[in-house]
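Worked example 3. Consider a protein that binds NAP.
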Amino acid sequence: MGILDTFSLKGKVALVTGASHGIGMGMASALAEAGATLTFCCSRQSSMEKAKAEYKEMGIDALGFVCDVTNEEQVQAMVKSIKEQVGSVDILVNNAGCIMRIPMHEMSTEDFRKVVDTDLTAQFIVSKAVLPDMMEKKSGKIINICSMMSELGRETVSAYASAKGGLKMLTRNIASEYGKYNIQCNGIGPGYIATSQTAAIRFDENGNPTPFHQFIIAKTPAERWGTPEDLQGAAVFLASKASDFVNGQILYVDGGIIAYIGKQPS
Ligand code: NAP
Ligand code: GCO
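Given these inputs, the predicted complex is written out as structure tokens:
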């Protein structure tokens, strides 16, 4: 098998959660281009239908589901339906997520729980749903979409950072517990990526770049915000045979921001 063949996903079934747009769609389209049969979910019918049409335009016949990843019953039903229609899940990308930017002392416990539910508990739920078939096949890839906030904090994102920090450790624990079944579980830690999730901190109500937009550019050695396309190579690598001996790692795709103390005074 040549080295490029080890990146092929031919014959594999991939499930990407939250792949109706943004980072999820970027990674999902790359997995399909690498040969995977693509399945995806999101939370709204309108998003799912729009995404299905966009995948079709890319030449990808994606199987889409409306499934709330925090709802175990819906997740179990989706995973069962995928198995019946195209085969059991070989590659899971736990991408679906949400964020609420509220100063912690003003944040309701309900809102804190909602974010942790979507950004941590859901990844447990979906991983648990696909593990039995992966264990039986003695093969599987689970990729959790972490964050810079798996390592660093900032004002107003206490719930999100707590969840993403937990997701880093869930990644390591799945790697530890299921490595013997030839299942690899790794994370991707995107830096600041231009998607709908960050629109509110990139542009003001008049559509002008915010000070935060410039702050991130100054903090990032690459001197730019990332795009969903920047994450495609990492997703294909961690989904493929090429990463069979990589387990429990978080691959930061962040333009160098985590490594950088920040521009020194001129
Ligand atoms: P996004 O544009 O807000 O997209 C979120 C996706 O998740 C959408 O497809 C949404 O579905 C889906 N979703 C949300 N809650 C769901 C639920 N309960 N059940 C099922 N699907 C749900 O986000 P993004 O920027 O692409 O981020 C994707 C992932 O990367 C998230 O985990 C995020 O934390 C992480 N991340 C983002 C950045 C960044 O800078 N953007 C950086 C690091 C990590 P609908 O379309 O139906 O709403
Ligand atoms: C924020 C951003 C970040 C990014 C990402 C960085 O408000 O700070 O939304 O959290 O989404 O997680 O890696």
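Take a moment to read the result before moving on. DSSP finds eight helices and seven strands in the chain. The beta strands are 13-17, 37-42, 63-66, 91-94, 140-145, 183-190, 250-253.
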